[in-house]
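step 4 of 6: structure.
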Amino acid sequence: MRPVSGVALLLGLMALPAALGQRSSESHKNSNESFAIVSFKWDHVKEPYIIALWILVASLAKIVFHLSHKVTRVVPESALLIVLGLFLGGIVWAADHLASFSLTPTVFFFYLLPPIVLDAGYFMPNRLFFGNLGSILLYAVIGTVWNAATTGLSLYGVYLTGIMGELHSGLLDFLLFGSLIAAVDPVAVLAVFEEVHVNEVLFIIVFGESLLNDAVTVVLYNVFDSFVAIGETNVTGIECLKGIVSFFVVSLGGTLVGIIFAFLLSLVSRFTKHVRIIEPGFVFIISYLSYLTAEMLSLSAILAITFCGICCQKYVKANISEQSSTTVRYTMKMLASGAETIIFMFLGISAVDPEIWTWNTAFILLTLVFISVYRVIGVVIQTWILNRYRTVQLEIIDQVVMSYGGLRGAVAFALVALLDGNKVKDRKLFVSTTIIVVFFTVIFQGLTIKPLVQWLKVKKTEHREPKLNEKLHGRAFDHILSAIEDISGQIGHHYLRDKWSNFDRKYLRKILMRRSAQKSRDQILNVFHELNLKDAISYVAEGERRGSLAFIRSPSTDNMVNVDFSTPLPSAVESSVSYLLREKAGPVCLDMQALEQRRKSIRDTEDTLAHHTLQQYLYKPRQEHKHLYSRHEIMHSEDDKQDKEIFHRTMRKRLESFKSTKLGINHSKKLNKIHKRDRGQKRRNSSVIPNGNIPPENPVQDFALKEKDLEFSESEENNDYETLHLGKGVDFLANVTKQNFTDAPAGDMDHDVEMTEYSSSDDQLNQNGSVSVNPLHFFPSCLQMPWTQNYSSLENRGNISLSAVSEYIASCDPNVPDLFWESGTDMKNKETVNSGYCSEVSFKSENSQEENTLLMFEGLEDSYMKEPQEKKMLLDIEGNYRSAAARRVQSRRSFHRPKPLHHPKLQKLASLPASCHVPPHSLEQEETQL
Amino acid sequence: MALSMLAQESGSVTSEQIEHLHRRFKQLSQDQLTIRKENFDSIPDLEFNPIRGKIVHAFFDKRNLRQESDGLAEEINFEDFLTIMSYFRPIEMNMDEEQLDRFRKEKLKFLFHMYDSDHDGKITLQEYRNVVEELLSGNPHLEKESARSIADGAMMEAASICVGQMGPDQVYEGITFEDFLKMWQGIDIETKMHVRFLNVDTIAHCY
């Protein structure tokens, strides 16, 4: 499959220039004669065109690889890409015997490497990184120097014995080669470790090493390069000293540049409030500038951009909007993974060039042996030293993985390609050896590291859901430990971290974070937020499953929902979108990208999902869709507010029910209080709107009021909540009077259209509003004769009772949709009703059977909601409605206390002829004033 | 003499470290034999710790001092000081499963006592709220209300972990130590709850 498509693509690619060339020459001829309407200018677009095509090929290849899970599970993607590159390179070479494409150091260092490193820095798990900084630095600095020195010296030693034959290199050349081949490569390490999910400490050590050793590599490379240039005899002690000094300058300078730019970036991001649309751009541009600046000052560019990412992430993420942050995340991932793909593919392509190859078996084999052996020795020695100081010991298994994970990659290749053939005589040999080493480590070690990790049973990361308790305890823990260090008079990790966070809070945040961000930026809060999101989603998923969100308001489901949010709901959930997306979050992996992806997928998908679904179901009608085009802004109106509302609501609901079970709140007492409060409210309101009913002739005002209500303070919301949840009946009652705000779920309708519809339906509904209260009035009497009896009679008597049912449906009809957003929108008239009906609460809460039936109606009514909008549609969907209702009834069954007697009847009700469900509109006109 | 005996008692705290701690103790107590609560005020770095009250409290909590009695000690001597400190010693490589388990429980018990301020063996919602409020007090922008709701949420989570499905009438009174253990399952506290007692010169650091 893969080769075939590759060939096809490539043939197309090859044929294109030829064909285009021909045509362009033809068109050229024509243009001499007259003005050409269409002309081909292949030469004009050639370069960007080919680049774009290569990128396309690489991306398509990625798609193809992932068609087969079997392959990608065994073979790392980087290895596949190299092989693909070799293959494509072979075809290109076979076609025109010219290696026209190769990975040039300029392209690599200026365009391909920065995104990958920035991505690594920006998504670096800082705590983990700084917690292991000591170990990372040791491996990065000492380890790399050790590798470079031993490899270079050993090769030189072997060369002196004459095994390698005649070379034109001296000691310095070998050391130069050693220094460029010594460094573990971040790109290769990331690519391979991404698929091997080792525990996070191990990962961060290997990965951190690969990032930070850049400074060492750059310095060693530059030092030896210049030494080679000035000649062996001119190297003095002072030059060596200069080399050592330059190491500190290069590394610390690079870091400093990174930090300065991070500061700048954070500062800029603080003031982008009004230019949201280019906000993400700053992140990339300023980080890239840090890279270039460091490069310009011949400091370590990788360190600069890494630390730029590491330092700015906290503030930038807090400052920029959620949307921008998502954009940054995706763009960064896209750039990084694209660059990585291209790098590996071009590594393969570059290798197909007979020009660069010189074979020297001894040299190549010995290089492979030496880099592996010395890596192992270096790791073992350094770990032995480290373990005397580390509290979390690095065990032998970890050391094996660390040694084995020392992959070399494109950095080495780019560096070796940079060598000047005039100064370094054996450049070709070095290049070919580097290519062999890179291929060997990426393909062979990359292939075998996974089985190795499994075979050694390396501790992997376990994925756990973020738990609030865990976070809280973790925070308490940090404080305790730093306090103990203070008390015992130690300066340790915790002490330093504590001091830093104090400094951060006192000064940095004030400078670098927006006011609003300072507030919300707390990890515990974030987890809380995340959990809330999850709850909201599980609510929605549950709603999807049942086909209605009505249950959210049904107190009877509280227990169920309360239980455990982490276990997926049984049965039909699988089909729901949110479930699928949540599944994708999957098990955690350790590497950065995956780590990020996980977090992202949890947050993001849930975010967007909660958004989408909730919006779809609940909020649409209220949203005023502005179909405006603006280059500078993306409209996202009320999203945030809506989110907050929903979280608030779900959380509060859970809490209320929890509290009431847990603390045994005295219902009646609180009710009384609320009663009073509501009365007060009523008094206030009544002056404005008599009887709590908005005059039907003014639906527009209605709208305005609603908007205003949205802004209601929280405390009032709270009251609402309490009212709603204390008495299980109250909420139903509350709903009833809210029909003023019944919004038909509007699709992508024009706002104007919606408005007119509102006005018409509002008219109607306002009248109904009072009607629908009616059944509630009757409830006491209804109670004496349980609804189930109605059903049985319904069954028996057929038409007569059927019509009764439909009457009931009709009367209840308009209430239901309000369910969703009523708590957020503090409705005045609802309150008045509340005060009126609070006393009736008690009887309702006792009757749980009714909830069942009511819910059923709600389900039906729910679907009818669309009715005023799309009357025509109704008939077509009718059948669906029925079956949906039946499903709902069935699904309900599993959650409720067993009531075997009722269900069959309910189901029968659900399967009544379609006509029965159509609300006879005539009935709705009936009016009873409150 | 006494020092070396203590060294044996408190496990991995070596005599060298004990000497260091002893110096520190004398520094804190101003060469008295016992430390009182006020002595902790002299540590400047502790000032910014949001839960410093709880931590200092823990030093005087008799439950942590392995005394049979309950309640608060007025003052603690060096031995007690060392006992508290030994809660924070790192695990040793040669510990077997059983020792590890006991070790873990000891550490968790210390934490638990810190939360359970009224000594009734349960972390009630109110107690939890207090802790969370203190924890978040470092952030001036955070309202008390949200701290409370976080505590509530955490409590609910605890309830769902420990009790599982709750009936509507069931009341979850608070987190018992058993529940506390359950909540910490899978988190390797042993490797986290430790302070490395290095021999850092503390004199300069104190003022």
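step 5 of 6: annotate
 - Residues 107 and 918 of chain A are 68 Å apart (CA to CA).
 - Chain A touches chain B through 60 residues (CB under 8 Å).
step 6 of 6: archive
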